[in-house]
Amino acid sequence: YTTLFRSMDIECGCAFSIKSAVEKIKKIPYPFSMVIFDHSGDDNEAMLFFEQAMQLSPNTTRVMLSSAPDINYLINAVNMGMIQKFILKPWEYEDLAKAVHSGTRLYEIFLENQKLTQLAKKQNSSLFELNCQLMETAKAHNRTLRKLEHDIEELKEQIAMICPEPDIDE
Predict the structure, then answer these.
(1) How far is 156 from 78, CA to CA, in rounded Å?
(2) Distance between CA atoms of 55 and 25, rounded to whole angstroms?
(3) Is the peptide bond before 166 cis (omega within 30 degrees of 0)?
(4) According to the model, what pLDDT value does residue 96 have?
(5) Longest dimension (CA), the chain
(6) For residues 14, 16, 20 and 25, what is the CA-based torsion angle, rounded to 10 degrees?
(7) What φ, ψ does residue 35 adopt, rounded to 5°?
(8) Residue 37 near residue 62, CB atoms below 8 Å
(9) What tens digit of pLDDT does each residue of 43-89 get?
(10) Cα separation, 160 vs 148, whole angstroms
(11) Which of the listed residues 8, 60, 126, 128 has the most CB atoms within 10 Å of its CB?
């Protein structure tokens, strides 16, 4: 596997037990973009690994390699969101390369979506604040307009008292 990952310029880590794989997932300061489980035996063991991997890093793409999968287990794993990709062993280099490429791309899309969501939240917050400021400014302008209209009416009344309009009938 490591030769494939190096040829794709992908940093990778290997573990030879579920316990060590889970420890690696826990210890790394950033989530893995993908985990690949080479299933060669107990379905419960694979399910345990995928459950733990999903809990620790829910957005990491999960791939299972297997030579003789129990179809019911496989259907269950896919339906529960435990795995996003299954590759039948013996695997072809191109199949695994495509799975790695699509899996890492899926994770990149998730990260981009996360960034865009955060940006949208920040912009929505700024827009809300600006809208509140605009509402307050509009209220202040409306108060000023009402006062000016009131002042104009008072001035009209004062002018009318000083200079009454001539009676046209006279």
Answers:
(1) 81
(2) 10
(3) no
(4) 86
(5) 117
(6) 30
(7) -125, 140
(8) yes
(9) 677 888 888 888 888 888 888 888 877 788 788 888 877 888 888 88
(10) 18
(11) 60
Q: Which tokens in the block code for residue 130?
A: 């600006």
Tokens at 143, concatenated: 């108060």
Q: What is the DSSP code (8-state) at residue 89?
A: S
What torsion, rounded to 10 degrees, do the Cα atoms 147, 151, 157, 159 define? Answer: -160
Structure-token pair, residue 113: 């979506």
Q: Give the predicted TM-score (pTM) of the model.
A: 0.67
Alpha carbons 140 and 135: distance in angstroms, whole number: 9
pLDDT in tens, 123-145: 999 999 999 999 999 999 999 99
* Paired tokens of 152: 């104009």
Sign of the torsion angle spanned by Cα atoms 56, 61, 65, 68: positive
85-88 and 34-39 strand pairing? unpaired
Mean pLDDT over the full length of the chain: 86
pLDDT, residue 86, reads: 85
Q: Which two tokens stand for residue 60?
A: 């990491």
